[in-house]
Fold:
Amino acid sequence: GQNIDQPTEMTATEGAIVQINCTYQTSGFNGLFWYQQHAGEAPTFLSYNVLDGLEEKGRFSSFLSRSKGYSYLLLKELQMKDSASYLCVAAGNKLTFGGGTRVLVKP
Amino acid sequence: DAGITQSPRHKVTETGTPVTLRCHQTENHRYMYWYRQDPGHGLRLIHYSYGVKDTDKGEVSDGYSVSRSKTEDFLLTLESATSSQTSVYFCAISEGNLETGGDIQYFGAGTRLSVL
Structure:
């Protein structure tokens, strides 16, 4: 079946690093998206991994291992504005959305 | 920001009444989607469209219908609203089909619907 597992909530300190793990099961896997969603707002695209490995975009990096059905999103040099939910989304025969990981950044 | 407008942004209605939500895009993207987002469930696809008058069901389509008479507009109708349809509804658009390798989806600001 289609399934996404990611932690419900994480807390970190401003300036620190946080890693959000995601495991997925999906038919016909094509790639893995990460979206950011601030409270009361729309999800916005962060990254899309198709091949195994790490992709870096400024303070954010995303990793994919297709053989393990595993991805993570790494947020470095955390800022208060990074407090949001982060959605792991597997693209396969259909898009499967995780419930999101709420990250709280404390001063 | 992608040009996506959802209306209304907030609506309160009574059980049994019909409700129509509108999604309007200015990007000329072929694909449009309606999702609902509820605590503990993540985003769930209701219906999507792959062209004018071409629509298909998502995983939670019961009680909902859609229409797309123009490229830029995608309407979601709740035939007879129920309390279980209280949710936040998001419209999304993409250039390519999510089933052909995935494509970035751009989301509207959402409509918060309460059915009393």
Remarks:
- The first strand of chain B starts at residue 4 and ends at 7.
- The interface with chain A takes residues 40-45, 59, 90, 98-99, 101-102, 104-110 of chain B (CB under 8 Å).
- The CA atoms of residues 52 and 70 of chain B lie 6 Å apart.
- The two ends of chain B are 34 Å apart (CA to CA).
